[in-house]
Each structure stands twice: as C-alpha cells, then as structure tokens.
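So, is this right?
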Amino acid sequence: MLELNTQAAIITEKMAFTSTNRGLRQLNVGIALMLSASATAGYNASQINSLLVLPEFAFFLSGLNASAKGLIIASVSLGSFLTFIPASYIADRMGRRVCVSIGALLVMIAAIVQTAVTHPWAFFGARVVTGMGVGISQTAAPLLIAESAHPRQRRKLTGLYNAVWFCGSITAAGIAFSTLSLQNSWSWRIPCLMQIIYPTLQLVAVCVIPESPRWLVSKGRRGQALAMLTRYHGNGNREDVVVQEQYDQICSSISAEEDLKSASQWSAFLRTKGDAHRLAICILLGFMQEWTGNGIISYYLAPILSSVGIKDSVHQSAVNLSLQVWNLIFAVGGASTSDRYGRRVLWLSSTTLMMIFLATITLMTGLFAELQIIEAGIAVVPMLFLFCASYDFAYMPLFIAYPAEILPFQLRAKGLAITLTTDSLACFFNQYVNPVAFSVLHWRYFSLYLGCLAFFMAVVYFLFPKTQDRTLEEVARIFESKECLSVESADEEKDFGTVPYAPKSQF
C-alpha cells in the first residue's frame, strides 16, 4: 500500500509540474508536432508497401523488369543516403529548425511532382527527392527534441520519436486501403499527394518550438539559451535549480569540447577509445535497424503473404493496416518502459524474442512451401505480428534515442547522420536485393537474418553500455570512463523524473 501511495504521489507531482508550467506546455506542443518528422519518414518508407497491393500501381510499373522495380522501391532510401551527411552540416551551422524546414519543404514539393508524373522513371526521380527531404529533416528533428526537452521528459520523448514512425505507416496503409476501390490511377496518386500532411505539421512545429539551447550556446548566444531554459523549463524563474544546473552543464560541456579544435571534425571519432566506441555503435545501429529480418517483412509483406497463400489484395491490405496499428502500440509501449527497465535490457530481450519468432516463421513458411500444410501457412501471420512486436518495443524507440544520448554535442549531429546513413544504405540493400534473393531462396532466405540476429545479440551484450538516469552531458562522459562497459554499475545518478532535483558539482 505504501508503494502504491508513493507511485500515486509521483504521478500527481508530475502532472502538477506540467500543468502549472505554461512554457513547458508550449514546448511539449512544439515537440509533439515535431514528432511528425518521424511520421513523415514512416509514411514514405512504408508507402511503397501499401502501393504494391494496388492493381493500378502494379499496372503503372508493369513495363519494368524486377531489377528496375527494385530500384524504384528503394528510391527513398537512396535519396536519404545522399543527404544525411550534408544535413549534419546544415543542422550544426544553420540550426536545427532551419534544417527541419528545408527537409519538410522538399518532401512537399516532391509529393506534388510524384502525384503528377506519368512515367515510372519520373516517379523514381520524385521519390529520390522525397528521400532527400526525409533525410534532411530526420537528421535535425530528433536532435532538436533531445536537446530542447525538459530533463524529466527527455528519455520518453526521444524514445517516442521513432515510435511515431508507425503513425506515418498507418496513415499510408489506411489511405491506400481506402483508394483500393478506385479503378484508375488516382488509387495510387492520392496516397502520393497525401505525403504533404506530415511535412506541413513539421513547418507548424518550427513556428512553435524554440531553437536548441545547446546549439545556441555553441554559437555564443548564451543569453538566448538561458532565456529559453528559463521560459520553457523554469516557468519563468531564472533561479530555478533545474535551469541553472542545465545551463551550467551545457556551457561547461560545450566549452570543454570547443577547447579541442578537432572536437567537431570527423576525425574526432577516432581521437580516443571512447569516441571510437561511439562510432562503432552508431554504425552498428544502422545495420541492426534493417538487418534483423524486419526489412523484408516491412517492405515485402505482400510477396510473403502470397507465398503462404494469402493472395487477395483486400486481405493483404487489411493485414498490412492491422500490422501497422499493432506496431505502433508496441513501439509506444517500449518508449514508455525504457526508463523503467533500461535501454540495455530492452535491446537484449527484444533480440532474443525476434530470434525465436523468426525461426518459427522460417519453419512454418518452409512447411507450407515444401509440404503444402495449410495450417503452417496460416500460422505465419500471427508469428509475423509477434516478431514485429518484439522488434517494436526496443529497436524502434531506441534507434534514434540511443545515439542521440551517447554522443557529445559537437559530434551529435554527425554521429546521428552516420547512423541514419548506415541505416539508409542497409535499407537500400534490403529493398533492392530482397526481391531477387527472396524469389530465388524463398523461405530459406530468412535463415540469413537469423544469423544476423545472433551477431547483434553479441554486439549489444559486449558494446552497449547503460545510459539510464543520466543527463546528455553525463551520458557523453561515461564513454571516457574505464567502467563504461560495467552496465550494472551501482553508482547512483540523479533522476529528474522521480525525485526532487538536487544540484551537485559536476566539474
């Protein structure tokens, strides 16, 4: 009973904290709108999966061979791959908000062009531009959220960022399902035009959310950074302990990094063992996000369903839409529980469950293909849902949150760009190679991803340190500690979310 009363008191305190802080409410509205950057990526990445079940879109691509179709399917990933690194310079030099605005505008322009095209290769070009816009906004939006959010809410909001990806995929699946009955090209043109929804919300968000205080300090605009923290984190009270401690940490951390002339150069990733460790994690995360088996399920659901006997386009669309809603539920659940259980526990448990369910999918698909056992084909569908749930509660919320946490400010944009670039490269490989490999190997192709999952399990166990209950500045420093891999360290760190914040000397 005492524990329940304590939890109730904590919840009441948090609600009162938010409800009485007008600046924080405005900040959270801006962050909520900025989450639409992730939904934009989700819409465009999964849109092709929704379009592939539309007969009119299949007719539009009917004159192309399998290789050309694979290239068009992978076009968004190609565009993103080209822009993540340049976007890191825009985010660092011009600001997070400007970078988001440029990306949103590109996606909106490309959506209009994509709707009007009459040739598959013109469609390909518009999709590449769409990917470029997604890449630019994706580089800056999570940084702006992580660097602007109140410390009590940062971990949940950064985890929620990538989970909102499924809001975009649900929208894409829902719109495509609603246009399935149209007997003309508008059945796929309308979903293309609706790409402007989430970029529009990004532009609204830019008008509401303030610039990152960390970026402001890095540009010598410390007064503006303190004013931002005072208004949005301290409810107008400049002497608030949270405001002062954050401001001191940010200034001290960025000043220390600026003392090293090479702190913001790409070579800084190889300066120390800690920096090289960060670089390894950033690169590995990009491959982990796409090579766990989720890539073939996310982008080639229709062929998988056809391979187990579900060939009706209405049924495939219904499964696709249901799966996206299911994904959102578990991704949000993972983002909400990451503080309680820690990033590392989620990584390990998620990877273990994915191995179990993918092995079952491989077995069931093989039984249906080789022995024509109908029950085995039917069993694949719930196994797909369970596999996706296992992926969603760790890989989706932590893909953006984890690299944003482990990197120091001067390398944060570049490190996230490396992760996203690696992810887009792995995604491009998935989208371009998967149809060819799956058509040749069929159900045996899943075995490749089982091997990848086993490798990723070892990677998480040996390389991913604990980041729970630390500020951005504290997380960045643990990589310089000899005990950075002691993931169950008993050292107690301050927790902004459950106890009153008590300042302590950090420098």
